[in-house]
Specification:
Blueprint lengths: L1 E6 L8 H12 L4 E6 L6 E2 L3 H6 L7 E7 L3 H13 L7
Antiparallel strand pairs: 1-4, 2-3, 2-4
Helix pairs in contact: 1-3
């Protein structure tokens, strides 16, 4: 199991388009991925677009991804890259 901190750095935060990219990415892996806002016990299934949107993660929000499964390392790297590249959007 991997626990990975992520920082939302894009200006619009984790809005609909960014959330959809994240969900599509996660669905490509067999590992289970759960997200939570740093400091909270709430865990959201990353395959749920509604759950991801309800996090209301704006720019500067810290998220913890918990990844568990056969391809957890690859999934963690891909998720980290997506966040670091601002979901493919201008920052």
């Amino acid at each position: 199991m991997i626990r990975q901190p992520l920082l939302v750095t894009n200006q619009l935060g984790l809005h609909a388009r960014a959330a959809a990219k994240l969900v599509r990415l996660v669905c490509g892996f067999s590992s289970e991925v759960h997200l939570s806002l740093e400091g909270r016990n709430q865990h959201i299934e990353a395959r749920s677009i509604l759950g991801v949107l309800m996090m209301a993660a704006s720019e500067g929000t810290r998220i913890i991804a918990t990844i568990d499964g056969n391809d957890e390392a690859e999934a963690g790297e891909a998720i980290r890259a997506l966040f670091e590249n601002n979901f493919g959007e201008e920052s």
